[in-house]
Amino acid sequence: MDSIKLSERQKKIVEYDDKPIYVKASAGSGKTRVLTERIRFQLSKTKKKILALTFTNKAGEEIKERLEEQKVDIKNRLFVGTFHSFCQYVLENHGSSIGVSQMPHIFESDKDRIELISQAIEQVPTYYESYKNKSLKDKNDFRYRALNFISKVKRELITDSEFHNHTEDSNIILLYQTYQEILRSQNAIDFDDLLLLTYQLFIEFPHISALYRRSFYSICVDEAQDLNNAQYNLLLALCGGDFKNIMMVGDPKQSIYHFNGSSSDYMNKEFPKDFNADVFELNENYRSSKKVIEAASKIISIENKDIIAKTVYDGEFKIQSCDDEFREAQCIIDKIKELINKKEDKNIEGLITLEKIVVLARNKYVFNNLEKLLNKESIPYHYKMSGGSIKFESALMSIFDLKLKIKLNPLDILHKKQLEDSSKKNTFLLGDIDTLVENLKDDGSNLKSSLSNFRNTLNDMAFDNDNDKTMVMNDIDELLNHWSKYAKNTDKKSLLQFKNSMALGKTSTVNEDKGITLSTVHTMKGQEFDIVFIIGMDDGTFPDYRAIQNGGIEMEQEKNNLYVAFTRAKRFLYVTYPLQRTMPWGAVKHKTPSRFLKF
Fold first, then answer.
1. What torsion, rounded to 10 degrees, do the Cα atoms 157, 162, 164, 169 define?
2. Is the whole model's pTM more than 0.85, yes or no?
3. Rounded-to-integer distance, Cα 149 and Cα 456, Å
4. Calpha distance 450→447 (Å, rounded)
5. Within a 10 A sphere around the Cβ of 25, how many other Cβ atoms?
6. Which helix (H) or strand (E) holds 247?
7. Count of Cβ atoms closer than 10 Å to residue 172 Cβ
8. Exposure winner among 147, 231, 341, 397, fewest CB in 10 A?
9. d(CA 586, CA 314)
């Protein structure tokens, strides 16, 4: 254990007995280091694999990178990935026991799910009669509410046969069942089904869950405050009552995915009770400056008084009011210029660069004025995007994507209809796309060469607009990047598995865009920057007005959101809010500072 320097508290956790343990880790306390070092320590005690479950692909990549630095045989000794990735792996190997003979296609996009629920509504006459007379806005609201309801049912692990016991509304039952029938008829599932089907597999065939228990020496769950009901019960089914070598690491104060059914209670209350887990606390902060730690402690009071600051940096924390959202954006621009011109500061290692700066907001629309000014001042910036399937910019590659989906899944009526609509609007090179897709081998062995050759032929093609050609080529390059990452980490390859891996975000590459980062708080989970700005801290924006109206757990989640935002800062933290906002329809609304800032 000498290769990585650990505090006494961290070392005790890493080398603790093979028992259930819950590590309550505050922001900046070195939880990822502790997690990876415990994995490494346990691998030294066994020849079995270890299962490491995360909530983002980026977190999984970070664990892999740290272990690879320690010369750990990742490929043969560790399964690390998201819950959904693990479920995909299980279903690919044992899904036939519950009728999943071939891995279904994953319909991951909101656009697809909205189309499916629209079809389901039309097939339930008692619903459709009231639905068809609604306004466009009400129809949209209705469809999203229906999808949220269906997701909630699946997160509660309610199977079709049990559904009647949970509601007396026959229309709801019909809508849910129709949605599921449409999915099944197209050999497809959605994200929630991955968890539900794997749970069903483990419960109905306990010898399969036992097989996985025997293959893993231990289970580690990162960011466990984000567990929801389906994920926690999946873990219970996997452990089967006799598997005890499990560790959960998380921070209750960073639970921010209530909208997805998550609750820190599964980690904080259920796990210690169900597993009789020993509880450890990591409250030494090695990341943030003293000023940032003090500010975060005022957002959410810390147990045992203050987090123990293990940093030599004082840092800086400031709150500033601005006349309006336009002046707020200008204030941030001015401060960024000041910092860049300063070049160096005793609180920051190395030069102060744009890449060390992030601007956070509760919602993306808050960036509108700042984005205009950044463009005007020619200051480079980029949005931090969450990983997932490619969103093709060109019409031609969008058609290629639809044709590929249909080639892999001839039952896919949904995308056949989308293809018909797209093909009517775009006829250029459709024959070439047909030939390209038809000649692709199921194992993907000629995907790279076929796409590269097609890309080369475009050089001599006359497009109506050069920008169109550029977009097609960029789309092909991005798809090839996804394939390269998939192929690098997969032995037995297939186009179907490739598409599903993309849907789960497993093939996304690290964004290396230059300049300032703009990001919503949710997308920045697990990231850190030397300099953090939080913009739009007026009441009704942060906390969100809907959370203020609903109160309760939603307001707790908003406070956790802000705590997460504060603790992304390593050295400097600047918070701004406008005293008035101009509404989209022109009215001016006076604003007050966020209630969370009333220290």
1. 10
2. no
3. 47
4. 5
5. 27
6. strand 246-250
7. 18
8. 341
9. 43
